[in-house]
Amino acid sequence: MSKTATILKRLGIAVLWGTALTGFAVLLVAAIQDKDAGKCKSILVKFEGKDDNFFIESKDIKSLITKDKNLNPVGKSIADINIAELESIVDQDPWVKNAEIYFDNSRQLNIKVTQREPVARVFTFSGNSFYLDGAGEHIPVSSRYAARVPVFTGFPTDAEKLQKPDSLLAAQIVDMGTYIGKDPFWMAQVEQLMITDDRRFEFIPKLGDQVIAFGEGTDIDKKFTKLLAFYKEGLNKVGWNNYTRINIAFENEVVCTRKDGVVPLQPVIKTDSLKLAGADEPPIADSEDSTTAAPATVKPVHTEPAKPVLKPAHAVKEKAKPQKEKEKVKEKAAAPAKQQPKAVYKPGNKSVNTSKKQKTP
Questions:
Q1: 114, 184, 253, 305 — which has fewest CB within 10 A?
Q2: Which pLDDT belongs to residue 113?
Q3: Which residue, among 38, 59, 49, 47, has the nearest Cα to 104 in the 3D structure?
């Protein structure tokens, strides 16, 4: 008798669970059918990302899917709305990185948009401008908002499909823009970077009037670390206005060109177009009389009156000496080399070496 009661009890419990599950399934199907039978009431757009970096607005996203009456979901049956097609349309906007669309219980169409985040603004030789995001994708300039990112001028082409050399250059721009944008000090110090004809980078810092020759857009962290060390250990001791050019492109050293009393040449800049002259600057010359021209820049030129150049004592011509004494001097050592207008700083020395070099006999 006890076994029969136990079996009946178990069967009763099973029947109750089965009835409950069946009722739940019926209610769920009915809710889905009711939802599908309902109509879309409205559209809600939500943005993901930085709140101060919105280059598009809700009305722009809504207009993408409502401007076509055949695609406009408002007032249509939810069962007849193709969500995948709407997502594809929103994704085509150049400022949209990703879009997710779904309906909530209130029959409202939700569009969650993730925007592209620019890392650099690029000006071409012709004056056109665009942004590059972290993936190297082109983003058009927005009329509503200007992103605070590093500016690069002198990009060699306006083509949307880049050739391999231009693609490599764009990748270096992305890397440099990303690095500078993440560092508050360099973001404040680097106003704009100029691309030379040989696809290298130069810039004039906001503090100081020297041309910083960066070289190729590689070893970015090493070069900026080396430049920062030179600021602390070099310029703080010898002065910030003693050099016209600082070259950090070399390995483990900084090569500087001292001022010679001549104002650096500055090309005429059209402030309304930011179009560069495109003139490339030759490498730092090894001769004493060479003059290096600063590249084009939109930064105003601060000129100073020329200062007299003090010649070192060893550069003054010696007075005539007897022939025998001259021969003795030649036998002891070769004639000293001319003073070079450069200073070489090597990290770790904590000093700027401006001593003259001896020529090889």
A1: 305
A2: 92
A3: 38
